[in-house]
Write a structure and sequence with these properties.
Order of helices and strands: HHHHHHHHHHHHHHHHH
Oligomer: single chain
CATH superfamily: MFS general substrate transporter like domains
Helix content: over 70%
CATH architecture: Up-down Bundle
């Protein structure tokens, strides 16, 4: 909790942490209206999965050039421009008049999400280097806190009565806070590093980190996209609990990330990744029981298990000797969002032609792969 106190007591750390929260408030608010958009446009799960593919495609399209943009603009300015872009494009998926407009809206929303993601993680990496203080996991905790706030917003679905008005209110609130605190990071630029040529020594740890990121971020995206439909169609949960799976997932992920910096310092990076994957495995088994309360417990365990893995990967990737921090972060994020890119159409196909239980069975197998990968990770990286 030391890093959380640091963020809450100093605007230099709160400012980038709030960008993390903002990204998931925008994204989470969209996520709770996925079933509504599906019904409004009259599309099935396979078409919905393909539309969400365009959100991931937008994210993935920006990644090859994100490091150049961040280095050209400066990491602080790139973060702010990402915030502005997300504020503009977050509304469009909820007002799309047809299926094709939805795909286009999600593509541009995804592209702005991708730029902001790379910029804000690089920003935290640079501040950690400058100040000698660790708060990456807690910053990702604010990302999860944004998901909690978005999940709580699901209780406003009936009173507000309009997805567009709900999102517009969210955009204005989030943007105003970012505008207030942007001065604390706007001038930060990445420190130059002495680059090394390509070598297996550099690529091996990056590849393993990328593989774990690929699986974990694919799983996280699946929870965001499919937890509501799983509770509705498989667990037969009452309407007021449809958003509770995402809320449980985000709440425990927030808690785990606020505790993560301290736990990582005590047991090491590889052990915390292994421990998290085992907790996630237990969570998937609970979800697959299909009973509503057990499924909610499962989503909570998955959030707790995955909570510290991605922050740890970004921290390692941003500090590999001989690699620009923005390039290391972009590689980890790029491979992670590759999983995010592939998961929606594949899982949508499985959910439509089999059952959503099949989808979550595949995710369980992927969590097992993450645990097995930690044995190789331990041989190729150092804590």
């Amino acid at each position: 909790m030391k890093s959380l106190r640091l963020i809450l007591s100093n605007p230099r750390y709160f400012a980038p942490a709030w960008v993390f929260a903002s990204l998931n408030i925008w994204f989470g608010t969209w996520a709770i209206y996925i079933p509504t958009v599906k019904e409004h446009l009259g599309i099935d799960k396979a078409k919905l999965g393909f539309a969400i593919f365009f959100l991931s495609l937008g994210i993935f399209t920006i990644f090859p050039v994100a490091a150049r943009i961040v280095n050209y603009l400066g990491v602080g300015r790139a973060t702010w421009y990402g915030v502005v872009g997300c504020s503009i494009f977050a509304l469009f998926p909820l007002i799309a008049p047809n299926y094709y407009a939805l795909m286009a809206a999600l593509f541009f929303f995804g592209a702005m999400n991708g730029l902001t993601d790379i910029a804000m993680n690089t920003l935290v990496t640079e501040i950690e280097k400058e100040d000698g203080k660790k708060f990456m996991s807690a910053a990702h905790g604010f990302f999860s806190l944004g998901g909690v706030l978005a999940g709580l917003g699901s209780f406003l679905i009936v009173p507000v009565g309009s997805p567009a008005f709900h999102m517009l209110g969210v955009i204005l609130m989030v943007f105003a806070i970012n505008l207030r605190f942007r001065k604390h990071y706007l001038g930060i630029t990445a420190a130059p590093v002495e680059k090394e040529g390509f070598s297996l020594k550099l690529f091996r740890p990056l590849f393993l980190l990328g593989l774990v990121s690929f699986i974990v971020m694919g799983g996280e995206g699946a929870i965001v996209d499919w937890s509501g439909l799983y509770l509705r169609e498989i667990s037969k949960a009452p309407e007021f609990l449809i958003g509770a799976g995402f809320l449980a997932f985000s709440s425990t992920m927030t808690l785990g990330r606020f505790l993560g910096d301290g736990i990582s310092a005590r047991i090491g990076s590889v052990r915390i990744v292994a421990m998290g994957s085992l907790i996630a495995i237990a969570g998937y088994l609970s979800v697959l029981s299909t009973e509503t309360h057990m499924a909610l417990l499962g989503f909570a365990l998955i959030g707790l298990g995955f909570s510290v893995i991605i922050p740890e990967l970004f921290r390692i990737g941003g500090n590999i000797q001989g690699v620009d921090s923005s390039q290391g972060v972009a590689f980890i994020a790029g491979t992670g969002y590759s999983g995010f890119l592939l998961a929606p159409p594949v899982l949508g196909y499985l959910g439509e032609h089999f059952r959503l239980t099949t989808t979550f069975g595949v995710l369980l197998a992927c969590a097992v792969l993450v645990f097995l990968a930690t044995f190789l990770l331990g041989r190729n990286t150092s804590d």
